[in-house]
Amino acid sequence: GAVVSQHPSWVICKSGTSVKIECRSLDFQATTMFWYRQFPKQSLMLMATSNEGSKATYEQGVEKDKFLINHASLTLSTLTVTSAHPEDSSFYICSSRGPSGRANEQFFGPGTRLTVL
Amino acid sequence: AQTVTQSQPEMSVQEAETVTLSCTYDTSESDYYLFWYKQPPSRQMILVIRQEAYKQQNATENRFSVNFQKAAKSFSLKISDSQLGDAAMYFCAYRRTNTGNQFYFGTGTSLTVIP
Fold first, then answer.
1. Is the Cβ–Cβ distance between B90 and B38 less than 8 Å?
2. Number of A–B residue contacts, CB under 8 Å
3. Which among A42, A91, A103 is the nearest to B43, CB-wise?
4. Interior CA angle at A43 toward A39 and B88, to 5°?
5. Which of A43, A52, A77, A97 is most worth mutating to test chain B (most B CB atoms within 10 A of its CB)?
6. What tens digit of pLDDT does each residue of B62-115 get?
7. A32 touches chain B (CB under 8 A)
8. Are A114 and A81 in contact (CB under 8 A)?
9. B45–chain A Cβ distance below 8 A for any pair
10. How much is the pLDDT for B1?
């Protein structure tokens, strides 16, 4: 149980376009989800915390107007990279707070590799 | 933000041998959680082991065990009988208990298993 999926797994886009990444909890309700960014051979950097039915909380230095987060249901959070530029190319990982009994854990999606040309 | 430090960017171990990965953290809180995650080449993060700070007993999961030294703020991972499938990046993570559920990750240790 506690499976998290991400879609797409890999996306290439042109500079200036917007890209939406979906994060879904498949077998449990996720009231809180997290979005991370990971550069090659580096650690996961928390970008924002996504709460169902309310505005996301962004970490310091993350542009909320560039990285739009929507958590409209208990099983889906989306990250939209607006007006993407090559420096936005990275690996984006979402995670979810675990279900009841495992709420102290996070369950991670498989990640999305974004390449901006 | 909490600081989690992994001082070993790379480690290697002979197959079937034992290896220990180091992690230290900085916090003023008394209650928290610590985790070790594994990230293989697929990039999928996999939970290896977790430790509650209020528990004195070190957590163990099959071949994986931790040495939790609360006073020293140290949380090392020992992998026994290393297998080729253990090769991956290993991240130590800290989670606060009183606000949100944010995790703070260390910089990672790349583990190579030599056949």
1. yes
2. 53
3. A91
4. 100
5. A43
6. 999 999 999 999 999 999 999 999 999 999 999 987 666 788 899 999 999 999
7. yes
8. yes
9. yes
10. 57
Contacts of B115 (CB under 8 A, 6+ apart): B15, B84
Q: Are B26 and B73 in contact (CB under 8 A)?
A: yes
Cross-chain Cβ contact B104/A105 below 8 Å: no
**How many angstroms away from the CA of B83 is the closest CA of chain A?**
22
Task: Give the DSSP H/E element, type plus range, for residue B79.
Answer: strand B74-79
Cβ within 8 Å of residue B71, ≥6 positions away: none
Residue B59 DSSP code = P
Which residues of chain A does B103 touch, with a Cβ-Cβ cutoff of 8 Å? 34, 46, 95, 106
Place of tokens 């909490």: B2
CB B75 within 8 A of CB B27: no
Query: Would an 8 Å CB–CB cutoff place A104 in contact with chain B?
Result: yes
Neighbours of A54 (CB within 10 A): 9
* Alpha-carbon span B107 to B94, nearest angstrom: 12
Amino acid B8 reads Q
pLDDT digits (tens, 9 = 90+) for A66-100: 999 999 899 999 999 999 999 999 999 999 988 88
